[in-house]
Write a structure and sequence with these properties.
With 450 residues, the chain is mainly alpha-helical. The chain has 3 domains: 90 residues, Orthogonal Bundle (Fumarase C, Chain B, domain 1); 266 residues, Up-down Bundle (Fumarase C, Chain A, domain 2), CATH 1.20.200; 36 residues, no CATH class. Helices cover 63% and strands 4% of the residues. The strands form 2 sheets. It has a two-stranded antiparallel sheet. Helix 2 runs antiparallel to helix 3, helix 5 packs antiparallel against helix 6 and helix 6 runs parallel beside helix 16.
Amino acid sequence: MAIWSKGGDETNQLVHDFTVGDDWKYDRVLAPYDLLGSIAHAQMLAAVGLMPAADAVALVGGLRQLHGEFQQGTWTIDAADEDVHSKVEALLTARLGEPAKRLHTGRSRNDQVLTDVRLWQKHTLARLAQEACAAAGALLNQAQQHEFHPFPGYTHLQRAMPSSLGMFFGAHAQALVDDLAMAEAAFTLADRCPLGSGASYGVGLPLDRSLTARLLGFAKGGGIAMADANGRGKVETACLDAASALVGDLSRFAADLVFFTAGECGFFTIGKGFTTGSSIMPQKKNLDLFELLRGRAARFLGLRTGLAATTLGLYSGYSRDLQDTKALCIDGPALCRQGLAVISASVPTLQPVRERILAALTPDIYATDEAYRLVREQSLTFRDAYVQVGRNLSAVAVPDHDATVRSRTHAGSTGNLGLDSLSDELTAVRSHWAERQVAMETCWERLLAG
């Protein structure tokens, strides 16, 4: 019998299958967080006198046991269970009897799943941020190793100006670090405890929402109940926006690598095991890894668009449409984390092929530098120098490539990239997210240990 059933009102099997869908699969991800939320809720109910102390002790003990058993794989959620809430209540009722009936006091499945997702989001964002730092670290290491190695810069996919490997790898590293500002904002939005908002309008009981928030490690207790409820979908979209920034930058790096490793460029080799073969062409070594990473950005965009569209135009209060935000929210960061893992593993194996790189540094790539030389040495206006060089491109000579890289000294240019500052920033950001994760997990361990 479903937990919402009053007896004699069971749904048609088709209706059950359609409304449940694959929600139960995603509840396997949320189950540990659901149990944490229930432990805090039971302790709060006892603290405000809404549950006998003995029942609270029994419930908390039962929930802790279920948490350990779930982590060990002793039980899980199946389609017949409808959702994690039904499964947990059924297990507790079978083991504890009457006390299990008190756990849902002052709570709706709406604010319960909201809390599960917020706890999961905070945990996932902390992990995602640290994995982004690891990927940025791999890119930064390459930038530091090859800081002043010349490299062609491209615009419109045509050789344009001299650049460096330090700039190439360093720019991609900085992008990932910059993206974490969005993860910070998403974490802040998720760091308010919605438990107690009920079915959108609060409940007629003296709940201590601040206590529940503290027990679960939220920075803030509940706000206006309807605002908490209406935040479902919005906060999830913010989480995907944070991941989206990372995915977009991973896609751009992947596109660069596909081009730069192609036979027409051949600027890099990649380590053994990071290419795939062809079923028909024996000679092929395909960089499928980066092609798929580029393609996964489109797949991610579909998830993010679907999530935003689900909440568009919804009325205030709970609507069942919101159930479908769960899968989109969970699948999105998973795609992003896979991409970050690909970067962390593959980038250290990249090796520049110097002779191919230098061959691409043809005279025309130094045309702008020649115009600037005329500005400096002959006091020409830039427009006059531009015209003069443009009319005599065949006269542009190839300078010392390595000296040119070092000669560019303004902030952010090839001779002054500021990689040490970027390294310091990366270290600080990585420590911030690691400390945040430790604080969360320590709080939850206290809940589970008693």
